[in-house]
Amino acid sequence: MSILDYFRSSKKANTATVAKERLQIIVAHQRGERGAPDYFPLMKQEIIAVIRKYVHISEEQVSVQLEQNDDNLSVLELNVTLPERN
Amino acid sequence: MAQIIVVTSGKGGVGKTTSSAAIATGLAIRGHKTVVIDFDIGLRNLDLIMGCERRVVYDFVNVINGESNLNQALIKDKRSENLYVLPASQTRDKDALTREGVGKVLDELSKDFEYIVCDSPAGIETGALMALYFADVAIVTTNPEVSSVRDSDRILGILQSKSRRAEQNLEPIKEYLLLTRYSPTRVKNGEMLSVADVEEILAIKLLGVIPESQAVLRASNSGVPVIMDQESDAGQAYGDTVSRLLGEEIPLRFVTEEKKGLLKRIFGS
């Protein structure tokens, strides 16, 4: 690193912070799917397809999550953001 | 009973074989009878890094198939009394590794050795799954880079669900983070994830940090595990890693930028 770099580098964004934030999101997502049964992704798609038959929504408006509690209890959580009615 | 250590990562090219060779050699130098096994069937490379490529006669798959016995396939290291290498085969397909076959070989090795180091292939296919299945300890080799960290997290999920210890509800595999190719200067400039960042994301115990080092290529060029080069930063960092694996508590080295003289600061390095 030469003296000129001192002036240049100050402008560069801190990409390590960006990397960390992106990783935290993707890893949290990955862990959410960790203990899930093999049929889970397909079931998720089918649930979305059924809702779509009645309401016009995109895939991002539906979140399906499987929460595993300590005491052998699994909760299937389904969140749908419905479009505003005009 | 031997302790079975898997060196794994998910992602390729992060330093699994370099680390397996260094750690196995380190354990042997300290007097522990150690064998290091190449699980990368079809793409064997551990023999090259260990410098015994011309002495391979029989391999892991030959032993599993009963075409040779263990003693014929094990290669005794030239440098350490206590170190042996079990090479992967170069030609067979990956399905050659069966759980029964691998289990039998590990059982037999367990009688003679203190440590069995399993050098996992990249990916999450049969070879990688077999390498981690029987493990007691996992060394998750990770580069401070997004794809490597994500893949390491995937591997942690597999260790916790697809290993023997997970399936049989035994005490879980001990998971350790080995951060390789670390560059303190780039971390300081905000261009690289720091040790603390990766520790926070993966949330496993840190075993060691190996700095990005020219000594690693020099070591592989000459077929001498980098831990033998105790003059080098990487060699010393692997030495520290082995000490921690054996239960010693020693501070991290090579994680802060080395001081540069005034002339270097002005004219660059």
TrEMBL record, chain A:
Q: Which Pfam families match?
A: MinE
Q: What is this protein called?
A: Cell division topological specificity factor
- Coiled-coil ranges from the UniProt annotation: none
Functional summary from the UniProt entry:
Prevents the cell division inhibition by proteins MinC and MinD at internal division sites while permitting inhibition at polar sites. This ensures cell division at the proper site by restricting the formation of a division septum at the midpoint of the long axis of the cell.
Protein's UniProt keywords contain Zinc-finger: no
InterPro entries noted in UniProt: MinE (IPR005527), MinE_sf (IPR036707)
GO biological processes: cell division
Similarity remark: Belongs to the MinE family.
**Keyword Cell division attributed:** yes
**Which keywords annotate this record?**
Cell cycle, Cell division
TrEMBL record, chain B:
Keyword GTP-binding in record: no
Query: Which InterPro entries does the entry link to?
Result: CobQ/CobB/MinD/ParA_Nub-bd_dom (IPR002586), MinD (IPR010223), MinD_FleN (IPR025501), P-loop_NTPase (IPR027417), ParA/MinD_ATPase (IPR050625)
Pfam families for the chain: CbiA
Q: Which UniProt keywords apply?
A: ATP-binding, Cell cycle, Cell division, Nucleotide-binding, Septation
Q: Which SUPFAM superfamilies match?
A: P-loop containing nucleoside triphosphate hydrolases
Q: Which residues form the CobQ/CobB/MinD/ParA nucleotide binding domain?
A: 5-226
Keyword Iron attributed: no
User: What is its quaternary makeup?
Assistant: Interacts with MinC and FtsZ.
Database matches in PANTHER family: SEPTUM SITE-DETERMINING PROTEIN MIND HOMOLOG, CHLOROPLASTIC, SEPTUM SITE-DETERMINING PROTEIN MIND HOMOLOG, CHLOROPLASTIC-RELATED
Q: Which family does it belong to?
A: Belongs to the ParA family. MinD subfamily.
Q: What does this protein do?
A: ATPase required for the correct placement of the division site. Cell division inhibitors MinC and MinD act in concert to form an inhibitor capable of blocking formation of the polar Z ring septums. Rapidly oscillates between the poles of the cell to destabilize FtsZ filaments that have formed before they mature into polar Z rings.
**What protein am I looking at?**
Septum site-determining protein MinD
Q: Give the organism the record lists.
A: Shewanella jiangmenensis
Q: Which gene encodes it?
A: minD
